[in-house]
# Entry
Amino acid sequence: MSPKAIIVGGGIGGLSAAICLSLMGWRVRVLEQAAKISEIGAGLQISPNGVKILDKIGVMPRLEVDLFEPESIEIRMGISGRRLLDLPIKAVATHRWGARYIQIHRVDLIAALSARLSELQGNALQTGAKVTSYRQTEEGADVVLADNSVVSGNLVIGADGIHSAIRRQMLGPDVPRFTGNIAWRALVPVARLGDLAPPPTGCIWAGRHKHAVTTRVRAGTVVNFVGIVEQTNWQQENWKTEGAKKGALSDFQGWDPRILAVIQEADTLHKWGLFDRAPLPQWHEKHVVLLGDSAHPMLPSMAQGAVQSIEDAYVLTQCLTANHKGIPSACSAYFDQRIKRTARVQQVSAQNLKLFHKSTLPAQLFSYVPIWVAGKFAPGLVQRRNDWLYGENLIS
# Structure
């Protein structure tokens, strides 16, 4: 009989793992604690390293109607709107890195992954299934649900996010560090903004002690906004927490009218604290393994959280397929292949968090003038900085 994987968490990483394993002949069961997949979520940027895998596992055709391809990546000053960098991305991504660079709503990606999984294994996804713990068995591992029911498999994958119950049992209590930054996010239809819609790019807006990012989702019809603000007294890490509009307007007072229009027109603004974590010493215990945010939570400053989860899913499957010494050995090989890369992304994301928060004119000149010069006269040098990340080809 084919081996069976129990995947805890029906997010991007968990669903990607279920698809990858299904394609390799595994039976899968995905246990998602939410009662239903809702419209809660935000915009994502999926770089070429992620798109290559989504294409390989048959998900990209389901995203075509909803994805958006930005023409360029921009950096602008938050107050004046003056453009510091305009780096072509649509015209060069496939040629340089092997696939497109896209922007997508998280819910649309989840829907595409769910549909692809259903196509491969109907009824593999179970909602309203909260997993509280796991236990090793002679042939694999069990998970115990909140209703005390037990589900058994040859492998348990903990893809249950930053507050992972699987990681907590395996490695003990989490030790996050507040970065001194909070994040605002909102989604606003472009039609509601009129002439004050931000440009249809991936745009970073730089300011003193804060920055913002605007992108497009839903085939370019919706603006996705994320605003990062330095703040010392915020301690919640729940991205579903709603914030007051007057607070966001105050944080971005005096900024470019396009940013203020997005905030003003938002029906709902969410606000959460940004925490970072050191790389974990291990991701597996016998027949139980971690994946995605459970293994390596990432700050949003490189837009790689979702993509690295997709990479995890693909590499884990390849290790399970190629390793004939058993599941624990395959999980160990997966950790060895992934830890340096994910730790580097975590490190660079932490470094980038305040990259566009320069508060004095000399600091701004020192940081931004070289960016302007490189973007204008040597864009290839700027693009080269992402070759190690976007150019990675895990497809075998």
Q: What stands out?
A: The mean pLDDT is 92. The chain is about 35% helix and 25% strand. The two ends are 26 Å apart (CA to CA).
